[in-house]
Amino acid sequence: MQFKNTLAFAQSLDAQDELREYRNRFHYPKVNGKEVIYFTGNSLGLQPKNVSGFVDEVMKDWAELAVEGHFYAKKPWWDYHERLAAPLAKVVGAKTKEVTVMNTLTVNLHLMMVSFYRPTEKRYKIICEEKAFPSDQYMFQSQLRFHGLDPNDAIVEVKKREGEHYWRTEDVVKTIDEVGDELALVLMGGVNYYNGQVFDMQAITAAGKRNGAMVGWDLAHAVGNIALHLHDWNVDFAAWCSYKYMNSGPGNASGVYINEKYLDRKDIQRFEGWWGTKKDTRFLMKPEFEPMENADAWQLSNAPILSVAPYLASLQLFEEVGMKKLIKKQKLLTSYLEFVLTEVDKQVASSFEIITPKERGCQLSVFLHGEGRAIFDYLMKNGVITDWREPNVIRLAPAPFYCSFEDMFWFGEVLKEGILAK
Ligand SMILES: Cc1ncc(COP(=O)(O)O)c(C=O)c1O
């Protein structure tokens, strides 16, 4: 399609957008009395309007039923979390029994490492991308120290090539093959938080498995953003947060995928709690642990219903629309944003460059030359919500649920003004 950087063209794309009505299903912050252009769905998604109904229902049941709500609430609390597994399984390309919702992301990655990082004298190394999300780095280091291993020896980081802003799949696969039979685990971010790169999860998983390692993915920036086929890719495990593209609210519950081949394995190591025991005998309060036959076996505590309720509300929207349509719009919207950026760049004599490779989801990371921070501040003051990453990067993630083509056009105009004003 031949794009144009005009309001009329942007509006014509909106007119053809089959998801355009979904904009009205979200709450927007306002700046200077106007709804913002929201680019930080990769950090905290907007609040879907149906969330308050789901939360109010729990509050009402709690007020009127108190403890009886566990079994007699409209959606009983004791198995409330189970309602999320089927819709989430569609989002991540898994079987329903392979998915559960519990805790928060870093907690779940630790729990997954308990089960799937079982170092031996020979096979103990972990491969990740260089500059992985800091929480993941702290997790690796602390897990390794917990096992009495030296993080400097055991962590192998795949580096970008000199002068390049992205990782090459061939370099990841080569590193996996080189570490070979010393490799215990590959655990990387499926979409990198900084440059927005989508890793070739299928190829990397295959390389890890070929070398006898476990392969897991941190899908914080991937879930609800790109197509995932975790089961078909033979991924061992994955975890994600729900507050970014999944729009479930700040700090909210995390999802977990565990390949079905591990679900009935008696030898699997796992930290256990009462919500992982079989439902029909859970309240007999027996001393022995009888695991659920699905990923719920990894559950520890009774679910935080007030936090799971907004996630269920948001999943209702994903059920209605489906990932296919979201991804179709995402591709067009992000391409249009890229076009607008390129047009603005021509007009302001090359003030920035896009560092996100072609393998991408929603996010474009833009390296601002010169007075980047002043441009960022200008955008924020003028109703464009984006985020700043050192040393000079703004990340723009136009989420297809609530961002429009017209937003992209107006963003370009504000950016141009901001650069010319400096
Ligand atoms: C890639 C990635 N991993 C891990 C985390 C940590 O998530 P949490 O604070 O929910 O544990 C984040 C948070 O933004 C993230 O982006």
Any overview of this molecule?
The chain is α/β, with parallel strands linked by helices and 422 residues long. The chain is globular, with a radius of gyration of 23 Å. The protein is built from 14 helices and 15 strands. It has a seven-stranded mixed beta sheet, with helices on both faces. A four-stranded antiparallel beta sheet has the order 11-12-15-14. The chain has a two-stranded antiparallel ribbon with strand order 1-2. The chain folds into two domains: 129 residues, Aspartate Aminotransferase, domain 1; 270 residues, Type I PLP-dependent aspartate aminotransferase-like (Major domain) (Aspartate Aminotransferase, domain 2). The mean pLDDT is 96. Pyridoxal-5'-phosphate binds next to α5 and α6. Catalyzes the cleavage of L-kynurenine (L-Kyn) and L-3-hydroxykynurenine (L-3OHKyn) into anthranilic acid (AA) and 3-hydroxyanthranilic acid (3-OHAA), respectively. Its EC number is 3.7.1.3. Pathway: Amino-acid degradation; L-kynurenine degradation; L-alanine and anthranilate from L-kynurenine: step 1/1; Cofactor biosynthesis; NAD(+) biosynthesis; quinolinate from L-kynurenine: step 2/3. Homodimer.
